[in-house]
Amino acid sequence: MPSTSGGCGEQGGALHLDKSEYVNSGSQGAEQMEAGGGDEYDDSSKFQNIKQPQTRKKTKKRKSLISLNVSASKYEIVRKVAEEFGNLTSADDDPACFLFWNDTAVSNERIAELKPYQRVNHFPAMGEICRKDCLARNLAKMMKVHPDEYNFSPKTWIFPAEYSSFQTYVRELKRKNKKRTFIVKPSNGSMGQGISLFRNGERIQQQDHTIVQEYLDKPFLLEGFKFDLRIYVLMTSCDPLRVFLFNDGLVRLSTEKYSAPSDTNVDQLYMHLTNYSINKRSENFERDEDVTKGSKRSIQYFNEYLKRNDYDVAAIWKNIADVINKTLVVAEPHVLHAYRMCRPGTSGNDSVCFEVLGFDIFLDKSLKPWLLEINRAPSFGTDEKIDLEIKSGLLYDALKLINMRPSDKRKGMAAQKAESRRRLFRPSKRLDLDLTEPDRKKLVLDRRKEELKEKLIHIRQENAREDFENRNMGRYQRIFPPQDKSSRDRYRKLISDAFNIFLAGRANSLQKEIAKLLSGSLREDEIIDMLQACDIENDGKQKAFKGPKPLSSMPSVVDEVTESDSRASSPTSSSPHNSVSNFKTRLSVSQSQSQLSKGISKTPIPKRPQSAQKSTNSRPHSGRLLYADQRSKSVARTSESQHASFDSEMDEVTSVVVREEEMMRKTLMALNDMRIKFPGKTDEEADIILNQIQENWKYHKPRIASYWLVKLDSIKRRKVIDIVKSNVRAVLQRTWRCPDVECLKLWRIFYRLFNRLLWSHGQGLWNCFSSNTSCSWDAIFNKNKEAVSGAEFMCCQRVIELCRQCLLIVYQFAAEAKLSIPAASGESSPTKQLSTRSSNPRPSPWLHSSPHKAMTPVSQRMSRLYLNKSLDNLAP
Ligand code: ADP
């Protein structure tokens, strides 16, 4: 089976992926300098900094501007490679650095707090495939839908839940007189710890946190030894999924020659396990300077070996890449959902997360790859020379691919300032009813153009990224998205089914949100066409849309237009009317928008024809109007009917915009009417309490700070915020007549706001008591590019106000509870009792039940608490 494509000698030893299917790294060298900030790449001099004088200057400057925090890594090699990219910051509290490298997974809160230019080396929710039990569960679900695709994982049972089905299987085997060996592993184990083999499944006890797998007893052997492959995979984005395979890795051999499992050898772990951490303890373990010998070898060597022995190396690696992609497809819905929860409103281009995953692949004797496990924290230990060579290379190329640029930080700050200015000077979005008809149209068109331009920028960023990747992949190769259409279609189907599985049984709202992700997106040329159509509408003449210089990977707009022109003018093209409808720009609403507009518009809005829809991933749209992806064929031939149709669409948009703004106004009013209700106290009494706290603020401030920031744990803090949250939700549901408020842009804004208030152990809300603008909550909107209208901003202010009041009330209740029923009531009790009341109150169980209490002045009561506490340093 000779190998034809790829080859070990090629490009420093590519992994034999068929280049027609997977984009190769493209040419390197001078081109890379223009690739948006990559250092000059030279494989041979990677760690020597032997560069052209001018390049060195540039690199030095760039390096000095980038700071990296690798203090959470114990690996020397991580530190060394990071030094190649910039200055290391040792203190954990350097919040402005470009990179955080953590040996272990990071919390969602940390991911949420990152600035767009920052990077962290983990995605959220990766445990869904990196814990053995989760992997088994998720693969099993996909296996049910695609048994032929997902047949690369050994049969697995998760104990204790699947103990009885395992026993049934064992009994069935016995009845059929079949013999199988089983391997038992801790669900969250690593490095071969706690693993044992059983010849008789009946002897396996029911245990917690364990998986049992059928033992693959026919391995492909290397010089008589069993081995597995440690393959390094870089994921740079989950939105959309982007995956790279490193073209080297480790072949880890066992240290005793292999024989099929028998009663006498099942305990010989040096024969059956291939973990380095197990086998290094064996006296037979061979350390060798040469990567082609010893118990740890390189994948490059392995490829050569296969080639020498006439195996189809390209086919093997194609299958391995397929296994990797299909596994990440299973993870994708979980990771994407978690990522969006952490970073709502940001586009995939800004992925702050990346991850180097270690895939452990077993090859059976027919060279079929089997997935054993995935490590999200693969070892970067460099015990041997081979480790140093491979791991430094893959780390270096990974950091290069994630493209950290000093300019991003500056740009981020500038964008933040511009956004603040824009918000400050933005004219009110309230549609002026005095506007003349042409002005009204112009306003709508301007808004439309703004949205289209945003989309165009997004697409261009994507193209720029691809361009950059093509030039800076080093020894990585992109395996997802694959280059060839048939693979793309196949994976698209798998992703869509993975999402269906993920969504089954989940909230309707989430289903809609995800459905939006999978719905169609516009191409660059389509947007340009639409922008030009706007200009024509505005000025009556065509303007060439000026944007950034197209990059090499951009689709050629000129070609597309010519092609469509010829299509339009061909005799087979449809009637003039049809051709007009082909190139006119249409407005539509996405699923969520139609949902959103349900309550506000009864006018059916034209939808993009089914046939024209693409199912590529797109970023979700805000709850506003969006201009759907009707392919516009040409802009050169406007006609009367086109204008007429455009006019009617504009009218529809305008009416929806007007109604939407009306809804915003109503929402704001409803929020303003909302009152926090004390059990047993009238609104007036509540006001008095709030006023008293306000009047004695100096006194209460440290006590409230202590209560909120120190005494309450995160769960209780969340409960306080949840009081407001659930009531705001109810207000939105009533006002928008929409049960799934998650599909509203306003709710997503609030959602971020609530998270912000809980940020840094409650510091977010505490900052809102301060007049210091530098720690203002609205920074979250500057950080992310999503624009927030004036009305939305005011709604946010009101929600903050409600949260502040709620905290004061809870604080008051805690104090009262302590005074009256000291033992029985904890701080959480007020959160249970409290509710809010809107202008349209619903009956509340406690509303009339509690007796009216005579009020002791709050300050007096408070003063009895906290007597012995020194709280002076807790000012916001
Ligand atoms: P750990 O995370 O503890 O390393 P693995 O699942 O990677 O656990 O298993 C450790 C080793 O056991 C593997 O490297 C492989 O050699 C062997 N092994 C694991 N599962 C199987 C299996 N189903 N069939 C054959 N060998 C296996």
List the helices and strands and how they pair.
Blueprint: H1 30-33, H2 53-65, E1 67-72, H3 76-85, E2 87-88, E3 99-102, H4 108-113, E4 119-120, H5 127-130, H6 132-145, E5 156-159, H7 163-175, E6 182-186, E7 196-198, E8 210-214, E9 227-238, E10 241-253, H8 269-272, H9 276-279, E11 296-298, H10 299-308, H11 313-342, E12 355-363, E13 369-375, H12 385-401, H13 406-425, H14 437-472, E14 476-480, H15 485-503, H16 508-518, H17 524-539, H18 557-569, H19 576-583, H20 591-598, H21 640-673, E15 675-677, H22 683-695, H23 697-711, H24 714-736, H25 745-767, H26 779-783, H27 790-820, H28 828-833, E16 835-837, H29 858-864
Parallel strand pairs: 1-2, 1-3, 3-4
Antiparallel strand pairs: 5-8, 6-7, 6-8, 9-10, 9-12, 10-11, 10-14, 12-13, 15-16
Helix pairs in contact: 3-12, 11-15, 14-17, 14-21, 15-16, 21-24, 21-27, 22-23, 22-27, 24-25, 24-27, 25-27
The structure holds adenosine-5'-diphosphate.
